Each structure stands twice: as structure tokens, then as C-alpha cells.
Amino acid sequence: MTINSSLKALMILFALFISFDGFSKEIALTFDDAPRAAKGYFDGKTRAAKLIANLKAHQVEQVAFFVVTSRLDAEGVARVNAYNTAGHIIANHSDTHPDFNRLTLEQYSDNFLRADRQLRPFSNFSPLYRFPYLREGNTLEKRNGMRALLKDRGYRNGYITLNNYDWYIETLFQQSIKSGQPLDMERMRQFYVKTLMASIQYYDQMANTYLGRSPKHVLLLHEMDITALFIGDLVDELRRQGWKIISPEQAYTDDIALYQTERVLKYNPGRIGEIARDNDQKSNLWHKTLDEAYLKQAFDQQVLNKTSQE
What we know:
Blueprint: H1 3-22, E1 25-34, H2 44-57, E2 64-67, H3 74-85, E3 89-92, H4 105-119, E4 125-129, H5 140-152, E5 156-157, H6 166-179, H7 185-211, E6 216-222, H8 225-240, E7 243-246, H9 248-251, H10 271-278, H11 292-302
Parallel strand pairs: 1-2, 1-6, 1-7, 2-3, 3-4, 4-5
């Protein structure tokens, strides 16, 4: 091989490396409902320790915990302090996790402000607000009122791009533990990773359809036992499939952070779903893995190894 041909080969390899690195998919991890009730497989202290250790062991430097402040009793404060001390972002998820569709703007605003006052003392507090149930107001007045309040208080919308029903998988897991049903933890691990990856791939493809690219994604998860158990396995699979784990602060620098739908949505599918709806996609804004009946059947078959006749 001549010097010129060797140089060309090296240049091609370098270009391929730059191309892969430049177009790698990026994802940030966020956890809602902290400190979530912990009366099942783990207690709260054990869950927090397991989750922190698992993130550290898999080189995930920073995630965000969206906190419901009415849960900040002594144990809850200790748990959120542990996440804060570990370097993770502490953000606002309301005081009582209300459904905006059921409250007035004044009631909802007061709920948000109560949480804000309690969260600002945390050293890693970041003014990000995630609407409970992702519901941002079912009237123009409510939607615009909260947009104005967030702006006035220096907040950003803690939107998500990758939606799932991991909370229902947790329900099925805890029900099985409580009932004493034999539960194969390896099957459980595989089901968790497979189901979440299916939803991630679905919404990433939707993003590519309407944006022509894969944005800096924000994954919705919840602070739960199955998350503490299997987050490392999910991270491993994400990286195996070419994803790069980034911080939430990095994710919220994407251009879609500035996107605001003009629609008033009673139920919100997340930022990618909003964009799809604004481009006239009227169905399939929620992936099939966001259907409780589908998940129950899949859980019974794939985790409990039940047949449809049982």
C-alpha cells in the first residue's frame, strides 16, 4: 500500500468516526414523583441508595429528580438530599401532584408556588417544572396563565420527548411480589428493558419523521423500585444501540425546548407528540406500550410465563 493510499484509508476511518460521533443519539434520564411511596420490594432509603449506586456504576453523572413536595417528610427529605448530594438535579413536580384539568389556574398556581418555596434550598435545585400527568392546561386561560407564571419565576418547562408507562410496570411488579407469585427477576429485567426500548425507538422515529433528526431526548422515568433495580441494564442497552447519555441540562438546550404548540391539549403526549399533532398526526401519539391492557398481557406472558388460557 502506498503512502497516499494509506493516508486516504486513515482519512476515511477518521471521517467515519466523526460521522458516527456527530450523529450519535443523545438521551437524558429524568425521574418523576420523588420521593415516591416505598412500601414494597424496597424501603425508601434502600431504593435511593440502590438507584444512586446503579447510576454511578454505569457512569451516568447526572439525572434530574422531579419532586412532589407534599411527600417531603423526614424520610422523604433524606432521600431527596441523597440525590442532591450525589450531584443530581432537583426540580419541581408540584406540591401534591394535581391534575390541572380539575383545578382552576389560581389553585394550580398556588400548588406550583408551594413546591417552589420548598425546593429552592436544595443546592442542586434547577428551575425546571414538569406538569403532573404532562397536562399543561385544558383551556387557553389556564395554559397561557401557567406559561406566563413559569416565565415570571425564571422556570423552564421540563418537557419530555420519550413517553412510557413504567409506573404501570411497577404496579404489576409490586402486585406480583405482594401476592407471592413466583417472579423470575431475569425475565423481569428483560421485560423492563425491552418495553422501554420499544417506546424510545417509537418516539425517536416519530421525531425523525417530523424534525428530520434525532433531538436531544428527555426520557420520562419514575423514582421506583424497578428503576433502582434495572436502570443500569437500560443504560447498557441504550449504549449498545448507539445512544449517548447526557445531562438534562444539556438536553434542554435542544431547539425543541423553545417549541410551543398553539393547541390546547386536554391530554399531552409529550413534546414529540405535540409536534406530530401540529403536523396533523391525529392517532398513535401514544405507543402501544402506553396501554395498560397491553402491558398486563405482555407482563403475564413474558414475566410470569402465563399462557392466555390460564
